[in-house]
Specification:
The chain is built from 17 helices and 2 strands. It has a two-stranded antiparallel sheet with strand order 1-2. α6 runs antiparallel to α7 and α10 packs antiparallel against α11. It is mainly alpha-helical. It has a domain of 81 residues. Helix content is 71%, strand content 1%. β1 and β2 form a beta hairpin.
Length: 350
């Protein structure tokens, strides 16, 4: 072995030695009667590997330094096992430690619900009101919906029907999007059903339409009532047509009119409307195609439905639901029965 090669091998061995044992030669030291190859930077000793199944030997975090999220997670675990008292203690601690109002809103909701459970309504009320007020934007839809439903239920339990109704009314008025507003209106209608006030409410909205035929709020409420709660195909259709007249570019109004056409068995008009909606909303072409196949079947045009299904599948396999719907079309045509399961599910999702 030549001297140059020996020096290189010595360097490699030194680095390996330092890496494994945390020690090495320094300048001026000799090894094997020869000068050291040069200074080698010290390498920190790697942490000892923890055997499988054991925990590292690290100090515990003091309880006073644990964050609010720790206690919230503990509270959620207690809820899963119906440990109500322990869950309440955990969420109370999380609520007390959290300083950010938006983050604390979630803890306020959980703690308020637990207080409702043990009928401590007076203490639950300000917590649920805080949850509604400070719901964070990132989860505002879900938390706001849960908080308002809980707050309205609390007012019902406290025998405060006017305040319960006001929660639903405010929810519908301040909804961030049409879907959220419709959800709020549906909950309000359910509330009226529970307290036997639905007929009186319908009468009020009918009177409002007589006074003002383009009362959008009255039309939206009556559309929901006549479309599902108290089905009346003709009235539902009249309301839906008026809403589209007032909002010709609104998708929600158009979909409500489509449902009204189906309810009134006006399938030709429904098919025409789906074709227009597909042009206006190309991003929804697939679900609208499923709806169109459903309409062909309901209108008795089974051969046309089969032709349409074949075209839909030919577009490509990237949407597996296309094949499911096509199978439903072929199945309905072969047995002559009602709408098959896959088609019913697609209709419900649109």
């Amino acid at each position: 072995m030549g001297p140059g090669l020996g020096r290189r091998v010595g360097t490699v061995l030194s680095v390996v030695t330092v890496s494994l044992f945390g020690r090495g030669s320094t300048a001026g030291e000799t090894k094997g009667g020869r000068p050291a190859p040069g200074p080698v930077a010290p390498v920190a000793r790697p942490p000892a590997a923890v055997p499988m199944g054991e925990l590292p030997d690290t100090p515990e975090t003091p309880v006073e330094k644990l964050p609010a999220q720790f206690f919230a997670a503990m509270g959620q675990a207690c809820l899963q096992y119906a440990q109500w008292t322990k869950a309440e203690e955990c969420f109370r601690e999380a609520y007390a430690r959290e300083k950010d109002a938006a983050a604390r809103a979630d803890y306020a909701f959980s703690l308020g619900k637990l207080l409702m459970r043990r009928k401590d309504y007076e203490k639950a009320l300000p917590l649920l009101e805080e949850a509604v007020k400070n719901a964070p934007e990132a989860s505002r839809g879900i938390l706001m919906r849960r908080s308002r439903l809980a707050l309205a239920a609390l007012h019902e339990r406290m025998k405060e029907p006017e305040k319960a109704e006001a929660v639903y009314q405010e929810w519908a008025k301040e909804a961030a999007n049409p879907m959220e507003a419709e959800m709020a209106r549906r909950e309000l209608i359910r509330y009226w059903q529970r307290v036997d006030k639905l007929d009186a409410a319908v009468a009020r909205y009918e009177a409002a339409l007589k006074a003002k035929a383009d009362d959008k709020g009255a039309l939206e409420m009556l559309g929901l009532v006549y479309g599902s709660v108290k089905p009346d195909p003709q009235r539902a259709l009249a309301v839906a047509e008026k809403l589209v007249e007032l909002q010709p570019q609104d998708r929600g109004a158009a979909m409500q009119l489509l449902a009204a056409y189906e309810q009134a068995a006006k399938y030709d008009k429904a098919i025409e409307l789906v074709s227009k909606l597909t042009e206006r909303f190309p991003e929804e072409a697939d679900p609208l195609s499923f709806r169109l196949a459903y309409l062909y079947i309901r209108s008795g045009q089974k051969e046309r439905a089969k032709e349409f299904a074949a075209k839909v599948v030919a577009k490509g396999p990237e949407v597996s639901q296309r094949h499911s719907v096509a199978a439903g079309v072929y199945l309905s045509g072969s047995r002559g029965g009602g709408l098959p399961g896959p088609m019913r599910k697609c209709k419900q999702r649109i």
